[in-house]
Amino acid sequence: MKRILITGASSGIGMHLANSYLEAGWQVIACGRSLSKLQSAIKATHPALILCTFDINQRTEVINKLKEVRALDAVILNAGTCEYMDDPLSFDSALFKRVIDTNVTGTGYCLEGVLSNINQGGQLAIVSSSVTMLPLTRSEAYGASKAALDYLTRTLAIDLSPRGIAVSLIRPGFVDTALTQKNTFSMPGIISGEQACKYIMQGLEQRKLEINFPKIFFFIMKILSLLPNALWRRLAVKMIRTAE
Prior knowledge:
The chain is α/β, with parallel strands linked by helices and 244 residues long. Helix content is 45%, strand content 17%. Helix 1 (12-23) packs across helix 6 (193-205) and helix 3 (59-67) runs parallel beside helix 4. The longest helix is centred in the middle third of the chain and has 22 residues, at 93-114. The protein is built from eight helices and seven strands, in the order E-H-E-H-E-H-E-H-E-H-E-H-E-H-H. The chain has a single domain (3-243), classed as NAD(P)-binding Rossmann-like Domain (Rossmann fold). The chain starts with a strand and ends with a helix. Helix 5 (140-159) links the parallel strand 5 (118-127) and strand 6 (166-172). It has helices at residues 12-23, 35-41, 59-67, 93-114, 140-159, 193-205, 215-225, 229-243, and strands at 3-6, 27-32, 49-53, 72-77, 118-127, 166-172, 210-213. The model has no long low-confidence stretch (mean pLDDT 94). The protein is globular and about 55 Å long. 36% of the residues are buried.
């Protein structure tokens, strides 16, 4: 039986991944902050399920818990948060720190705890976001954190290759989760958590370097990212004014 560890498994994409890998016959180590939330989100009575709780912002706790989990065939680092900057003139450094701490530093804690436990020929995947393709309004903290994960993942893909570990960067578009349900703006191309899960599992099975979805949304973002930066800035500012 193959073993996979998934962080952020108590809701959203992580929850769907945990349940789907259980159905596919894997042993799943589902990680989250709250034991009760993990138990309600995942098939808690499944014999192949192991629940692992820790606060991703607590370095010692994260590392100690993850170092106990041996012989992993795959790891998906999915835990993260999203907060937006509403007033750029009153830059909220506390908000900025919260997002960076969870999305970037917390991922680093997980890597320190888990990397040495991935089997030869195993896989590591880190969940970023398609927001990194373009600078978007109010995304100073969230976009910066995900851009850092892009660079981190691509660097690990180089450095872990000689050790036989495949590394995948996952960049979803809008996915219907508890986080996106808080958004008050239009989310073009939004897909369900089940659809996102299928994209990720198929991409990992093919050992893709990058898993970008949904296809049409990613294509549009890719085209827009090729525009000169000055032109995109004018378009983005115009969209803000139109929304107001």
